[in-house]
Amino acid sequence: MFDFHHFLGPKFGKWKRNAITVAGGNGKGQELNQLSSPSGIFIDKNKKNFIADSFNHRIVEWKHNAEEGDIIAGGNGEGNRMDQLNRPTDVIVDQQNHLIIITDYGNRRVIQWLNQTQQILIHGIDCYGLAIDKHGFLYISDYMKNEVRRWKMGEYNNKGIVVAGGNGQGKKLNQLNEPHFIFVNEDQSVYVSDGNNNRVMKWRKNAKEGTVVAGGNGFGGNLNQLFYPEGVIVDDLGQIYVADCWNDRIMRWCEGKEGGEIVVGGNGKRNEPNQLSEPTDLSFDDEGNLYVADFKNNRIEKFELIL
């Protein structure tokens, strides 16, 4: 089944300011050593990077220390055939069973690749982010309906259940405005990066509204603000890590605190090792190293944990 290695964040963990590029970084392009606007990433326990290589319309697997990646889904041009993708945004991989689930954003479908056999799980959904919990539920954010829905894995012939948002576009506590990436914790609380509201929301299981756990103070670059948040991960201590996309930084927030702290980036929008340019997603490996999809720099950056 899926690899749920939970990251126990060091309480005051710090990461090296300068990153190592572990995938891409060779300009924007479609060669195997290049990426084109990488969006969602998934790191497995062998430190393999699985990347939604969005504008190359493919999912690539980049082994630890590899010079180039392997195409494991798509890569047959932009299109809506079963063997094609159109701007995939997020990916989850179950390596044991050779199962890949993809939000195929441009085709408005969630698609599964199982041993190179494709199946559409959900049609006609403006999907962006996805998550799976340990109980076998699949969660998908719909950025047009401003909601997150949940399905029992394997049972997709229904509309799913709304678990966040679903009350129209807006900034009330029961609303979302362009939800993108999502994270689900052990007790099935759903964390949503609520892009246009410049905040991260937490919806407890069966809640009728969410709580603001990061941002929510308008857009800007102060420590109590976010500017179009994207990827979100919560560690076992409840610390919220968020890709603060348009501020070019990764933030850490503790629930209930007024502001967050900059973990990496925030040093301007260029491609130096200590810089990010519109980071979209983030992930941790088993050792607590931080990986960032550096969207505009067409690379995946690894920031090593300082022990």
TrEMBL record:
Q: Where are the NHL repeats?
A: 219-250, 272-306
Q: Does the keyword Repeat apply?
A: yes
Gene Ontology molecular function: zinc ion binding
Q: Enumerate the UniProt keywords alphabetically.
A: Repeat
Q: Which PANTHER family match?
A: E3 UBIQUITIN-PROTEIN LIGASE NHLRC1-RELATED, PROTEIN LIN-41
Q: What is this protein called?
A: Uncharacterized protein
Q: Which organism is it from?
A: Adineta steineri
